[in-house]
């Protein structure tokens, strides 16, 4: 059960805004080989960004976008991904009713099909609110049932599944061939349920990795929304713990 390891740089958003190049250099120095990344900052072209990433041995695996971007400006997203060699585009959304889930499912099917035509795979990224129940059914279960598995796949987030009170590995096992990217983050013990570095909290990653291998997950993506340490220290701890667990494909 070994996987290539990527970073979602939301974790180091402050550092990236202050020193884009230096932050990416530190990510690569820790050992990460993949990154979920969007367009470069002002003053840097995509070609220059790609040159930097190539020098650092960092592969863009995908990017996160808004529903509006995916609906109105899909070409520029897919053009970017083709240029940097990424193939996934992920979206998060919020549902306040069963009807909203059903409407979103139709929109996601259209977007997913359009992405597929352009050689890109559309992923849905969950938080904990998708485990709100409508008529006794989780919003995420409705969404998965009402979307076409060939066009709408998942980027499941282990922390948010746990935060919703479910077992991340058990939920992942329901996503056969439907979860190419897995966001891994841990949770501190205690009532606050604060974010923890991978391997420092209460999640059973041995079970999660076994499930990920079974369902065909391609990349593990480290993300930590907030940290009690410096974020760069946090992502190093997560990476080193993954190494100790024997989860990293060298």
UniProtKB/TrEMBL annotation:
Domain of life: Bacteria
Keyword hit for Isomerase: yes
All copies of domain Xylose isomerase-like TIM barrel, residue ranges: 24-230
SUPFAM superfamilies: Xylose isomerase-like
UniProt key word Isomerase: yes
GO molecular function (one): isomerase activity
Keywords: Isomerase
Gene3D superfamilies cross-referenced by the UniProt entry: Divalent-metal-dependent TIM barrel enzymes (3.20.20.150)
Family annotation (PANTHER family): HYDROXYPYRUVATE ISOMERASE, INOSOSE DEHYDRATASE
Protein name in UniProt: Sugar phosphate isomerase
Lineage, uppermost ranks: Bacteria, Bacillati, Bacillota, Bacilli, Bacillales
């Amino acid at each position: 059960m070994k996987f290539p390891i990527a970073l979602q740089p939301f974790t180091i958003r402050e550092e990236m805004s202050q020193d884009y190049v230096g932050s990416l250099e530190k990510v690569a120095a820790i050992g990460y080989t993949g990154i979920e990344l969007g367009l470069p900052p002002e003053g840097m072209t995509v070609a220059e960004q790609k040159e930097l990433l190539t020098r650092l041995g960092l592969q863009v695996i995908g990017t996160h976008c808004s529903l509006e971007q995916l609906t109105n400006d899909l070409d520029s997203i897919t053009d970017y991904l083709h240029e940097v060699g990424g193939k996934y585009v992920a979206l998060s959304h919020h549902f306040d009713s069963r009807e909203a889930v059903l409407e979103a499912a139709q929109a996601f099917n259209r977007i997913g099909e359009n992405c597929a035509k352009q050689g890109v795979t559309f992923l849905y990224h969950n938080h904990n609110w998708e485990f709100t129940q409508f008529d006794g059914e989780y919003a995420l279960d409705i969404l998965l049932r009402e979307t076409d598995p060939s066009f709408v796949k998942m980027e499941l987030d282990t922390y948010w599944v746990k935060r919703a009170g479910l077992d991340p590995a058990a939920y992942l096992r329901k996503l056969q061939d439907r979860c190419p990217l897995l966001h891994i983050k841990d949770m501190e013990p205690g009532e606050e349920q604060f974010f923890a570095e991978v391997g420092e909290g209460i999640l059973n990653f041995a079970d999660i990795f076994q499930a990920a291998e079974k369902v065909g997950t391609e990349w593990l993506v480290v993300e930590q929304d907030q940290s009690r340490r410096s974020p760069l220290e946090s992502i190093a701890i997560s990476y080193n713990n993954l190494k100790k667990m024997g989860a990293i494909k060298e």
